[in-house]
Amino acid sequence: MFPAATRIGRRRALTGSAVALVVLAVLVWWLQPFSRTPPSGEVVFGTGTKAGVYQLYGEKLRGELAVDMPDLSVELKTSLGSQQNVAMVALDKTQFAIAAADAVENYRNDGKPGARDLRGVARLYDDYLQLIVPVGSKVQHVDDLKGLRVGIGPDHSGVQLIANGVLRAAGLDPAEDVVPHRDGIDTGPGKLERGEIDAFFWSGGLPTRGLVDLSERFDFRFVPIESHLVTALHRQDDMVGHHYRPATMPESAYPRAMNGEPVETLAVSNLLITRKDVDPELIEWFTRTVIRSRDDIGKEVHAAQVVDVRTAVDTHPLPLHEGALNYYRSVKP
After folding, report:
1. Kindly report the CA angle at 331 between 327 and 333, in degrees rounded to 5?
2. Taking burial as the number of CB atoms within 10 A of a residue's CB, which of 94, 100, 216, 333 is the most buried?
3. What does the pLDDT look like over 103-148, one tens digit per residue?
4. How far apart are CA 273 and CA 100, in angstroms?
C-alpha cells in the first residue's frame, strides 16, 4: 500500500511541477513585451477641434503613452475632423489619427493618394450624430430643415460627410434646400446661441464637452435621426452608408437638454489609424497603451469606457497593422 501511495505522490508531484513550468513559461511570455526597451522618438497624432472628443481623448492618451514610453514625444495636431485626419495619415503628415469609419471608407472609395497604405490600430468608441436646435424651434424632423440656416460641419470634416448624407436621405439637397454653414462644434454652439444659424449637426462621442458647456447657458434640444433615414443611407450607391447603424442617445448624455428622454439617432465607429510603414514595435506598444488605459481615460472621456480588446480588433474597412495584430495575438485567451 505504501509503495503505491508513494508512486501516486510522485506522479502528482511531477504533474504539479509540469503545470508550474507551463504557468511560468506563459507568464514569461506574457511579460516579455514589457521587458523590452520602450520605443523612443517623435510621432504626430491627429485629433480634431479643441471642443471635440477627439482632442480630449488625444490629450489623455498622450499622458498614458508618456507612462509606458517616456522617451516618446507625441505631438497632438488639431484638425477639422475625420476626413482631414485620414488624409494626413495617408499622406504621411501624421503617424496616427482618430477617424470615423465612414470617412476612411470614403477616402478609400475615391482612390486617393496613400489609401492602400492605411492600416487599423484599434476600434475605439462610437460617434453619435447630434442635430441641435433651439428649444423653441419648429423643427421636429430632418426634412423640416428645408430653407433654414444649417451648420453642416467644416469642409474635410467627418461631420459634413455624415450631415450631407442624412440631408440627402431626408430628400434634401445640402447645397440647394438648406443654407449651409461650415460650422462644427467649435463655432456652431455660439452661432446657434446668437441666432446666426437655425440648427447644426455634430457627430461625436457622448457627451461632447462643447455641448455640455452650451447646455449650461442656452436651452436647446435634439432632433431625432429616425431609423428610416439610416435605411435610406444603406441604399446609397457607395459603401459609406453601411457604416451607420440605428442608435439611441441615452437621456444621461446631456441631462440639461434631454429632460429625461432618450433621442433616436445613428452611430458610426471611430478607428485609431496609422500607415503600414510605421514601426510594428511602436504600434504594438501603442495598442497596448490604448487597451490598458481605458479605465483611466474613461474617467474623463466617458465614450472611451467602451474600448475593449474584443471589439478593438474590428477596424473595418482597414486591415490591422502588423504591430497591432501582434499585440492582439499576445493577449488572445
Report:
1. 145
2. 100
3. 999 999 999 999 999 999 999 999 999 999 999 999 999 999 999 9
4. 10
The span from the first CA to the last CA of the chain, in angstroms, equals 42
Q: Is 43 in a helix, a strand, or coil?
A: strand
Q: For 186-224, how does the pLDDT look when each residue is reduced to its tens digit (9 = 90+)?
A: 999 999 999 999 999 999 999 999 999 999 999 999 999
In this structure, the dihedral spanned by the alpha carbons of residues 244, 246, 247 and 248, taken in order and rounded to 10 degrees, is 140
3-state class (DSSP) for residue 321: coil
In angstroms, the CA 53 to CA 188 distance is: 15
> Are 312 and 290 in contact, with CB atoms under 8 Å apart?
yes
Q: Angle between the 158-169 and 82-90 helix axes, to the nearest 10 degrees?
A: 130
**Contact partners, residue 72, CB within 8 Å, separation at least 6:** 38, 39, 40, 41, 42, 43, 65, 66, 282
- Decide: 89 and 115 in contact? Cβ < 8 Å: no
Give the Cα separation of 62 and 266 in Å (integer): 29
Taking only the tens place, the pLDDT of each residue in 256-279 is 999 999 999 999 999 999 999 999
On whether the CB atoms of residues 107 and 90 are closer than 8 A, the answer is yes
> pLDDT category, 36, cuts 50, 70, 90?
confident
Q: What is the pTM of this model?
A: 0.86
Give the chain's mean pLDDT. 90
Q: Which residues contact 276 (CB under 8 A, 6 or more apart)?
A: 117, 118, 119, 321, 322
Cα dihedral 272, 76, 51, 180 sign: negative
Query: Identity (one letter) of the amino acid at 309?
Result: V
Helices (H) and strands (E) in the chain, counts: 13, 10
Residue-wise pLDDT for 37-54, tens only, equals 999 999 999 999 988 999
What distance in Å separates the CA atoms of residue 69 and residue 122, rounded to the nearest whole number?
A: 19
